[in-house]
Known about the structure:
Layout: H1 2-26, H2 32-43, E1 47-55, E2 60-70, E3 83-94, H3 96-100, E4 105-118, E5 158-159, E6 161-172, E7 178-189, E8 197-205, E9 208-216, H4 219-222, E10 229-237, E11 240-250, E12 255-265, H5 268-272, E13 285-294, E14 297-307, E15 310-319, E16 328-339, E17 368-380, E18 383-395, E19 398-407, E20 416-426, E21 430-443, H6 444-450, H7 454-457, E22 460-461, E23 463-473, H8 477-481, E24 485-498, H9 499-503, E25 519-532, E26 535-545, E27 548-557, E28 562-569, E29 583-588, E30 593-596, H10 612-619
Amino acid sequence: MMVFRLKYLAALVAALLVLAVVAAAALVVWPRAAAQMLATHLLDRRVAVAELSFGIGDPVTVRVRGLQIANMPGSSSPDSAPDMIAIEAIDAALDRAMLLQGKLVYESLQVTRPRIALERDASGKGNWDFGTGGGSGEASTSDSRLTLVPKNRMQFPSLLNFRLTGGELRFRTSSGKWLRVPLDDLTIQAADEDAPVSLVLDGGYNDTDAQLTATTASFNAFRDASKPFDAGFSIAMPGVKLDFKGVLQEPLDFEGVEGRLALEARQLDDLIRIFDTPTGIVAPLKLSGGFTRNGDAWRLEDARGDIGGNLFTGRIALDEGNRGEADDLQFGLDFEKLDLPSVMPQGDGSDDWRKANIRPATAKDTAHLDLQVSADQLLYGDRQLRQVAVAVEVAAGFIKLHGATANLGRPDQAGHLRMNGELRATENDSASLNASLQLDRAEAGTLLQALGLRDSASQIAGAIEGRANLTMRGAILGEALKTARGHAVMTMQQGRIARSLVEAASADLRAIFRDRDDSTALRCLLAAAEIRDGLMVLGPLNLRSDRGTIRGGGHLDLVQRQLDLVLRSDPKTTGFLALDIPLHLQGPLGDLSAKPDRQAVLPGQTLPDLPPAQAMLARANPCSQ
């Protein structure tokens, strides 16, 4: 994307600069009025020159003041620039012998305060297309005649000692936004037409300072269209550096590009901020790979990188959209280990997650993003998942999770978590969410560890089956949770549970659980929940062992994150030593209090009206009886 934006600096600026430069050469043999008439005719644009003088010695000198080239007729909006090009001053010295041979060789060229505005009309035609072959494809590769506007690389002049100062390039996107590229100081130098060319530009991109340095093959090599043109350049911005070395088949259009690209950013946000979309991600980034550009297709293949100490391989692709259409971005990244906090955005200091805006961007020029990330190991604090794969699609008006999977089994078994969902912008600046979750033979201990319940992970074992669905609507997360609706079911059979967990649900179960390994057989477990307007009603919650049954019920406020849950051993299944006093869990998640409470009432144990797949899973479990 960064190269995509700066291609206008590398290609269109060069072409338009030559337009102004060559226009000066045409004025050598014409008085000012005649020169204006000729240039206006050739370009089919109004051309005005405030002052013109020249000398016919060797070198031939040209002095121009106040050059203006009008924008295209019927430019696309009222805020279009009246002039496509306005240059305060041009001072040139041309090799006379080369000029008589029809070649432009500038011994020196000074351009002062050029203002260049690039935009397209409603049909997509660029204002730099003068009808004289603005692109290489409109001219024969054998056409190397002197021309006012280069049609191809063969017609490009030689700029042996060139300097541009105080300039600015503006480019208007299809959304109407102007991108600004300051051209504070640009120099191009070469000893002669066969010598390597050096280029240095001090400028920027919008409000970001930037410096471009390049070393290329000679001007004669530039004009040899039978061979790719060798070039290498570096772009440096605050906290960001990009290096490229390779070949270009059409240098003026930055077309037919093939080479190696390397990118370093002190923080990823330093790079993203350039495009006015800061993310708050402060992780450093290194990225390199084989870079190509052919037509609208930009590719970085065999990519290798490091973001925040997390090594990855993969590929990145960009396909430019037609006018009015979104660009298509594809990322395929594979990590061995991904420490998620190291690459997550940094917050603004506020912990009120309820105010988070969840509505997807709806602008027409919102890029279409296809992100596929895999990690052998995903870490989040003391939580971890294995064999994680995520596929996300982002476009104007929606974010779609095509699938997120993880292995929640032991290393020697398969147990899977699968998630799908879609967040879509709706009317009234709102958004709707639909999501589903599925657990297949997920190991209970692994699941508890992934949820951050490490202390409980070793106290229960067995394969969990689960299904859940959720819908909600709102622009802000807190508001959306108040509308949340859904269902969830989790079941387990033939597992093991620590005696201490069951003892916590009854005042005295020591006579029931006496296994030497401090655990007992867990015959079944059933947990069901229904979500209504942000309140998750929990129940029935049933756990049955060989020697006793525990039932539970309550509710969880998703907005306030407050839990009220009652657990009680079933007196019909316990011995005479059990007191069967209910255990009451209350308080905010993360700071729960649990105490025996004789007054606590166990909610009803009837299954809610579940969706068909969840109802089938629940009724197949013995604990539903």
